[in-house]
Design goal:
The structure holds two protein chains of two kinds. Helices cover 34% and strands 25% of the residues of chain A. Chain A is of the alpha/beta class. In chain A, a hairpin with a 2-residue loop joins β1 and β2. Chain B is mainly α. Chain B has a single domain, classed as MetI-like (MetI-like fold, Orthogonal Bundle). In chain B, α5 packs across α6, α8 runs parallel beside α9 and α8 packs antiparallel against α10. The longest helix of chain B has 39 residues. The chains are: A alpha/beta, B mainly alpha.
Chain lengths: 262, 251
């Protein structure tokens, strides 16, 4: 089940996403606050990137800039050589909470971005993604009838249904209980291996990052710069008590400036 | 389910009994008892007036309310979305809002004459501002996540309004519409006392003027209460629909 390292494979075929000299300055009450500085990042096609850093450091800001929701004060983001100027169906942002539309059923949510397709094709696509995220039997249910984990799976399905190149996930499992969160990581890895999309995943959970990512981008505290990029060279499925896993985890904890003991 | 009905019914029966007994033991009171009122309602039904008046009142309320909905709600949504528009419009709505719709009666009669149009106009005025304010605040309360998700899926402006904005504000709009429907029903009775010669408000006014038929006055009041309740139940049944009112089922 060991995968070829996509990071290595993709370097040959060029980069999917390229962030150059990104900077974001917020102006509030006459004072300007710098949120991001000198961010340079290259993400390969099909790569799974996690972004970690102290809370409030600007992880979500970076994600929003890359997704086109926020214009950077300086620098550029290019995807497939094309400059990002706004949100686009080719890259979908998945939110931590309340991201699905509560007035639509599971089917309605997954089909939300598919209104241009013909009916038969749309239904086929919906059925496929219902199955992918294992929500069979809940097609006609509303999000309020689903658990938190199911709602997040639904959000991922809605995102994938429009066939995006890149998924941006903003602490997608942050509001779930710890058991569900672990199960969701497994689900996401399974989906990623099946669908092969580029994933940029923001988290504040070091274990999550080491379990999921090909590379982990560590941001410094505000203004956020890239402090370190750690390559996780362990094939999936990862043994979370293997020495190499613990070594990388400790390395990341040290990068973030956390002690080994509580 | 049964027990839920039992207590209120018993309570109403008890109140009616107390009412009847006190009216009988104090003949000096100019108030008809429930039996006389029931007889009054029966008389109205016999003459075919009850249905005619209820239909007349509901007709006016429906027109005034619907006209207010189709003007105030889109306007309120637009103003709520474009904050600058709201800031410009705010002083005007703050001044017009506290004016009772009844204060418009003289102007309504001047503009539209005595008839349906005046009372429809009064109901429209009474419903317009509550709906406008509801729509504006509903837009302010849309979770940003829905707006961003909508934009992410590349919706055109029209599609965005139809597929994200309207459904997102619907729960709050429904509450506002229900409250406003109550206002419309209050206004129609007052308007009918002055501006028309049919309807439940007219019935009350007419019964007093034409021979002090207080049994018919109270009968009219009871019918107003009953129809008002039915209108409220109708609005509530809209709120039961999940695709409309997703908020009721959220934790």
């Amino acid at each position: 089940m060991a995968l070829a390292q996509p990071a290595v494979a993709a370097i040959k075929s060029g980069f999917k996403l390229h962030a150059q000299q990104l900077g974001v300055v917020y102006g509030a009450n006459g004072k300007s606050v710098s949120a991001l500085e000198e961010i340079n990042l290259e993400i390969a096609d099909g790569e799974f990137i996690c972004i970690v850093g102290p809370s409030g450091c600007g992880k979500s800001t970076l994600l929003n800039v890359m997704g086109g929701f926020l214009a950077p004060t300086s620098g550029t983001v290019t995807i497939d050589g094309e400059r990002v100027t706004g949100p686009d169906q080719r890259r979908i942002l998945v939110f931590q909470e309340r991201g699905v539309f509560p007035w639509l059923t599971v089917e309605g949510n997954i089909g939300f971005g598919l209104s241009k397709l013909r009916r038969a094709e749309r239904e086929q696509r919906i059925a496929r993604y219902v199955e992918l995220v294992r929500l069979q039997g809940f097609e006609r249910s509303y999000p309020s009838d689903l658990s938190g984990g199911m709602r997040q799976r639904l959000q991922v399905a809605r995102a994938l249904a429009v066939n995006p190149d890149i998924l941006f996930l903003d602490e997608p499992f942050g509001a779930l209980d710890s058991i569900t969160r672990v199960m969701m990581r497994g689900e996401l890895l399974r989906i990623w291996q099946q669908e092969r999309r580029t994933i940029v995943f923001v988290t504040h959970d070091i274990d999550e990052a080491v379990q999921l990512a090909d590379r982990v981008v560590v941001l410094s505290s505000r203004p956020a710069r890239i402090q370190e990029i750690v390559t996780i060279d362990i094939p999936h499925p990862r043994n979370i008590s293997a020495p190499r896993y613990l070594e990388l985890r400790d390395e990341l904890l040290k990068q973030i400036g956390l002690a080994y003991e509580i | 389910m049964r027990r839920g009905w039992l207590r209120p019914t018993l309570f109403i029966v008890l109140l009616l009994a107390i009412w009847e007994v006190s009216v009988r033991t104090h003949p000096g009171l100019i108030l008809p008892g429930p039996i006389a009122v029931a007889a009054g309602i029966a008389e109205l039904i016999r003459h075919g007036l009850l249905v005619k008046y209820v239909v007349a009142s509901v007709f006016r309320v429906t027109w005034g309310f619907v006209l207010a909905c189709i003007t105030a709600i889109p306007l309120g949504l637009a103003l709520g979305w474009y904050r600058r528009g709201e800031m410009a419009f705010n002083p005007l709505s703050q001044i017009l809002r506290p004016i009772s719709p009844l204060a418009w009666i003289p102007l309504a009669i001047l503009w539209f004459g005595v008839g349906d149009l005046s009372s429809i106009f009064l109901i429209f005025v009474g419903c317009f501002f509550p709906l406008l304010l509801t729509a504006m605040s509903a837009v302010h309360n849309i979770p940003a996540v829905y707006v961003r998700a909508g934009r992410n899926f590349g919706l055109s402006s029209t599609a965005f309004v139809g597929r994200v904005l309207y459904p997102a504000v619907m729960p709050q709009l429904l509450v506002g519409m229900r409250v406003t429907m109550g206002i419309a029903w209050l206004v129609v009775v007052a308007a009918e006392m002055i501006a028309v010669n049919s309807g439940l408000g007219f019935l009350i006014d007419d019964a007093r003027n034409a021979g002090n038929r207080y049994d018919l006055v109270v009968a009219g009041m009871v019918v107003i209460g009953g129809v008002g309740l039915l209108l409220d139940l109708a609005m509530r049944s809209l709120e039961q629909m999940k695709s409309f009112n997703w908020k009721s089922s959220e934790e």
